[in-house]
Amino acid sequence: MNAAQEKEALLWGLVGVALFAATLPMTRLAVGSAEAPQLSPWFVTFGRAAVAGVLSLLYLLWQRAQGQLKVPRKAEWPLVGMTAFGVIVGFPLFLALALRHVPSTHGAVVTALLPLSTAVLGALWFRQRPSPGFWACAVLGSGLVLAYMVWRAGGLYLGAANIYLLIAMTTGAFGYIGGARLTPRLGAEQVICWVLMSSLPLTLPMAWLFAPADVAAIAAVSWWGFVYVALFSMWIGFFAWYRALALGAVRVSQIQLVQPFLSLLFAVPLVGERLDGVTLVFALAVIATVYAGKKMPVHQKVPA
């Protein structure tokens, strides 16, 4: 990869990460707080996927007209379902449920561990053999996140919101693994579009079921939050991110480390949250742990 391609890859990667980083504060805007609830977390989850699913259907039809459409094989459909469970339902639903009760800055610290969680589950899924240093980083990162949650809860009781965040992180990691298995043959953009389009029989009726009865009662800013997560978090962001990975996966993947930090920064002007020093320290510590973990060797196969 020459200098121009590397620059383009890093630029697309930064665009993708920035779009994804605003997901947490925008989701918080969409669902509101426990004291002032807005859109249902269930509607935000299925509604955003339904909007992105319709756009994906149009994109796949366009790809077919161009003669570039690749259809998942019979053996690949379970992976499509696995990816949908993780990135269409699991991660966004439990994230939205959690953000009804905790600030998006809190969610940013917990979900900062997502890349390392994906690596851990990926190593187990693909029967890889991570180094002791990798496992040490995984344990340290998990310990930091748990310590932060305990500190915010004011005791050993984690509460439902933190449990939701842990489930979101785990299901999201499974979704990323499924997508990674499909990407080499289908191409990254078509993977997310097939996942979204094939989920329409679920997302459309569920979005209708959980749609607000009184649309006018929902604040305009909450609708803007919903539009953002539907268009950018669920669809356009993937195009920018996958384009970047196609140009230079190794260098670009490191940009993802700044995503939780950007989420913290975006939360201040978008949601009006306060960024305290302890939250910032924990976030930086988790990011540093994830960075170290990604540098640790992981052998491809477990010896027989």
TrEMBL record:
<feature type="transmembrane region" description="Helical">
    <location>
        <begin position="157"/>
        <end position="179"/>
    </location>
</feature>
<feature type="transmembrane region" description="Helical">
    <location>
        <begin position="191"/>
        <end position="211"/>
    </location>
</feature>
<feature type="transmembrane region" description="Helical">
    <location>
        <begin position="277"/>
        <end position="293"/>
    </location>
</feature>
<keyword id="KW-0472">Membrane</keyword>
<dbReference type="Pfam" id="PF00892">
    <property type="entry name" value="EamA"/>
</dbReference>
<keyword id="KW-1133">Transmembrane helix</keyword>
<feature type="transmembrane region" description="Helical">
    <location>
        <begin position="77"/>
        <end position="99"/>
    </location>
</feature>
<dbReference type="InterPro" id="IPR037185">
    <property type="entry name" value="EmrE-like"/>
</dbReference>
<feature type="transmembrane region" description="Helical">
    <location>
        <begin position="223"/>
        <end position="242"/>
    </location>
</feature>
<feature type="domain" description="EamA">
    <location>
        <begin position="161"/>
        <end position="291"/>
    </location>
</feature>
<protein>
    <submittedName>
        <fullName>Transporter</fullName>
    </submittedName>
</protein>
<comment type="similarity">
    <text>Belongs to the EamA transporter family.</text>
</comment>
<keyword id="KW-0812">Transmembrane</keyword>
<dbReference type="InterPro" id="IPR000620">
    <property type="entry name" value="EamA_dom"/>
</dbReference>
<feature type="transmembrane region" description="Helical">
    <location>
        <begin position="254"/>
        <end position="271"/>
    </location>
</feature>
<dbReference type="GO" id="GO:0016020">
    <property type="term" value="C:membrane"/>
</dbReference>
<feature type="transmembrane region" description="Helical">
    <location>
        <begin position="42"/>
        <end position="62"/>
    </location>
</feature>
<feature type="domain" description="EamA">
    <location>
        <begin position="9"/>
        <end position="141"/>
    </location>
</feature>
<dbReference type="InterPro" id="IPR050638">
    <property type="entry name" value="AA-Vitamin_Transporters"/>
</dbReference>
<feature type="transmembrane region" description="Helical">
    <location>
        <begin position="133"/>
        <end position="151"/>
    </location>
</feature>
<feature type="transmembrane region" description="Helical">
    <location>
        <begin position="105"/>
        <end position="126"/>
    </location>
</feature>
